[in-house]
Each structure stands twice: as C-alpha cells, then as structure tokens.
Amino acid sequence: MHVNPYIVLGSAVVGFLVGMTGAGGGALMTPMLILIFGVKPSTAISSDLVAAVVMRPIGAVVHMAQKTVNFRLVSWMVIGSVPMAFLGSYVLHVMGTTSAAQHNVEITLGGALLLGAAAMILRYVLDRRSGQKRQAVVHELVVHPALTVGIGMIGGFVVGMTSVGSGSLMIVLLLFLYPMLGANQLVGTDLTQAVPLTLAAALGALAFGHVELAVTTSVIIGSVPAVLVGSFLSSRAPDRYIRPVITFVIFASGLKYVGVGTTALGWILCATLLGAGVTWLAYARPWQVDRVPPP
C-alpha cells in the first residue's frame, strides 16, 4: 500500500473546508481525486465515502460540544437518507465500471454539483432581498418532518451514488426549508446527520468492491486533523467569505464533469470571476467612503 503525499496534502485542504463550512466532502474531494490524481470515478467516490466515515464524526463531535446540533432534525433526515444511500450504492454498482458507465457517473455528479451551486447563489440572493438574518436558535427550531425526510431521501440517494449530497446539496435544501438558521448551526446539524448517512453509503461501497485502500488511507491521513481544526474555527468563520469560495469550486467541478473542455472552462471561470467582481463593485461601491466631519 502506497500513501500518496500529494493526496494527503489535497485532502488536508478539503478537510479544513469541510470542517469550516460543512461543504466540500464529495464536492471537492471526489473531483480532486479524479481530475488531479487520475483515480477512476467509481473508486474515488467509494474511497471518499469510506474516508468520510472517519472524517465526519470529528466535526460532528466539535459541533455537539458547541450545541449547534438539532438532534430531532437529524433523526428525521436519517430516516430518509440511510436507506436511500444503500439504494444509491447499488445503482452505482449496477451501472458497472465500463467507460460508458463512468461517463454517466460523471454527468450525474456534474449535474448535482451545478444544482448545488445554483441553489446556494439563489439562497444568498433571496436572503439579501428579504433582509433575513439567520439568527434563530437551533434548539427552538420547528421541524417539518415530511419535508425533512424528503431532503434526507434526495441527499441519501445522491451521496450513495456520487458521494456528493451531504454538504453540497442537503445543506442547501436545509437553508431553503429553515431560512432563519445561521450557517454554522446548519453545518453542525448536517455534519451530525452525515455520520450514519456516510456509514450506510460506505458499507454499500465496501459491499460492491470499489474501494482502493491506498487512496482511502491517504485521504484519512490528510483530512482528519484538518477537519478538526476547521470545525473549531467554524463558529467564528465569516460565512460571507467562505461560502462564495465553496460555491465557485463546486461550480467549476460541475462544469468539468458535464463535459466542458479545459479551454472553455477557463474562459467561463474567468468570466464568472469578472462578473462577480463587477457585481460586487456596483453593489458595495467601496470608493464611496462616508466622511465624518471633524468636531
């Protein structure tokens, strides 16, 4: 078994982002393994899921200590997500490991990533327009059982099939269903429900034989210490700075998976960054400094 130091380093970066934001596990780790290190999609997905079984509980324990976890919300999500995670792993197995099947997996993964990025942007715009400040207390949350189970089912199936869903899609759906909660509270709740979810998906991956031990070990070595540090900082991290970065990376990964060429991808990302910068300048107008007259 050969531990790849570059995978260890990349996993540390992703693990830190997972601890900080709750996003990035499958949305960043799996694309990194496939696009940078040439790991087969089915192997990257399954190895990432098994590594997440070790990584996710670290962040969950930290958030439990910070009391940013709603266990009632967690229980309803798990009811929907765990059985669907097994189904997603089985569907991945049925699709096989041929080149056509791998292409289908990549298209599915890309669609999931683009959906997550678009939903995060839409949620931000809606919050800005409504003036909502997510300041509700997590333990005073009024849970909607049926909708929450539905979120769990959607996320469970996607995470079982692509390893994406827990942070990149499910937390976005939670933001829409419970818009008054702060991101750190949603991160804590989502990390906690992800523990049984990723365990179920990982068991399915182990049963169908896609895991590569060397890749999984490299990911664990890099991500576990980093997710611990990120989780400790997550309650203090300015969400308005971290979320745009995660959204941009998810968007870039999704474009790559749905078949956008390297050159076209570069131009699209440059145009996106330029457009975002112009939009920020038009809205913030940093050159207009309020001058306070001297006494």
Folded structure, characterized:
With 295 residues, this protein is mostly helical. The chain has one domain. It is built from eleven helices and no strands. The protein has helices at residues 5-21, 25-36, 41-66, 71-95, 99-130, 145-162, 170-177, 183-207, 213-234, 239-257, 262-284. Helix 1 (5-21) packs antiparallel against helix 2, helix 3 (41-66) runs parallel beside helix 9 (213-234) and helix 7 (170-177) packs antiparallel against helix 8 (183-207). The longest helix has 32 residues, at 99-130. The chain is globular and about 60 Å long. The mean pLDDT is 79.
Short description:
By secondary structure, this protein is mostly helical.
Give the helix/strand layout.
Elements: H1 5-21, H2 25-36, H3 41-66, H4 71-95, H5 99-130, H6 145-162, H7 170-177, H8 183-207, H9 213-234, H10 239-257, H11 262-284
Shape, per Cα inertia axes = globular
Rg estimate, integer Å: 19 Å
The total strand number stands at: 0
Q: In terms of per-residue confidence, which ranges show pLDDT below 50 for 5 or more consecutive residues?
A: none
| SSE topology string | HHHHHHHHHHH
**What is the number of helices?**
11
Give the CA-CA distance, first to last residue: 72 Å
- Global mean pLDDT: 79
Largest sheet features: none
Content of β-strand? under 5%
Helix fraction bin: over 70%
Decide which structural class fits the backbone: mainly alpha
Number of structurally distinct domains: 1
